[in-house]
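Quick one - inputs below.
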Amino acid sequence: MALRLRIDPIACDGRGVCAELFPERVSLDDWGFPILDDDPIGRDLLEHARRAVAACPVLALRLERT
Amino acid sequence: MTSTLAPRVETAPAPESLPRLLSEVPRSWRDLVSHRRRAGVLPEVRREPRPDLIQAVERAGLRGKGGGAFSTAHKMEAVAAGAGRAVVVVNGAEGEPASGKDKLLLVRAPHLVLDGALAAAAAVGADQVVVAVDRHASEALDSVRRALGERLSYEPAPIPMRLVAVPTHYVSGEETALVRWLNGGEAKPTNTARPFERGVARRPTLLDNVETLAHVAQIVRWGPGWFRTVGTPNEPGSTLISLSGAVARPAVYEVPLGASLARVLEQSGGRLDQISAVLVGGYFGTWLTADNAAEARLSCEDLARFGSDLGCGVVIALPREACGVVESARVLSWLASSTAGQCGSCVHGLASIADTTGAVARGRAPRDAALQLMRWAEQIEGRGACRLPDGAARFLRSSLAAFQHEVDRHLRGAHCGQAPHVLPLPNPVRDSWR
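Output:
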């Protein structure tokens, strides 16, 4: 079982907080919307991932067990 | 009143060759009495799913004709396994601009489609059928209304069937959009629930394309063995092709899966030497160069060689005098205007792509525009709630590849101002999303 970042593209309105807080796994496209790395989040990055999820102002970002 | 029909029921002999579906499309309206004389009796709808019917569809090897080419039997199995009584939705939204096959079936052979819907309802144990038709397809709406009325008076359906008129938008025929609208929301795609688990009224919902259900009716009537006598081993049966462009007789054709594209074009009065490219699969589809079109066969398996598939069966032959760059830019602009406006990468990405391809077509784009477009195609792929951005990305890539030389010419300033516009784009309908 692995943890992965998931985004709800309908809810997301491109504030870009996630990319700022978690640049290791989130980049922005040319219009400012997040592109997520699909690799599982390892222990070393879990804290960063959680912080980015918690900071999303529209609750569009989540960590999913897959 | 059912008894007045019963003694005369006598199934027509199974056609040995093509057409199959189109043999049930008469020149004028066929009423229920004459339809039932040909079609025989319907399988009984029970409270429980009917594995025998699902198995028949499985053995036939039928795949969905709406664009996804997903196994119809697998979809039925998933719905039948769901919790609660299922719902069957006949998807007749047919938002693809050059597609006419579903409207043709609804207008001329509505009883065949309704038989298919009832057979599918029996297969998954559904207790209702919803027939969803584009709000602006008035002929199809009238025809289905009349057919449902006939059934009420001559042959009461075992379960309720109702007709609904769906908002006219390219994305409203997408499964989740249709379900959201049927549940009282806007006809826009969602990413929350999968319809086969939780669809209409939160119940397991089977959504099948109109043509798919017409095939189901014939499979149930004549058996999977008969169905497989045409087509290829992996893609059995026949399929409807909405053929237009540089052919003398644009129309809906029925062909065996695996048919030679060149032959289909020739039989409809097209000449390969006057065609510069062929668009296969509609505006989610791909361009075949004339060379590839000459050897392609109309099956997903064969078209995969060219990174293409049948999609919803739209085939458009581009005449030599048209410009592939201009045509592609027109389609991409239309796709951009078709967004539901929900996902940022779709709204902004498609708009950027439409602007830049438009500039390329006018000979006003920067020299690196093709590279920029390729980057954007990659960026928008997989980023929407529905597959509109993916479809646009695929169409864009295929346009850049198929018309590579023309694109280069345009990037050096050419603009093809005299080229005729060929690909049909619907007049913008200002419809609501409800």
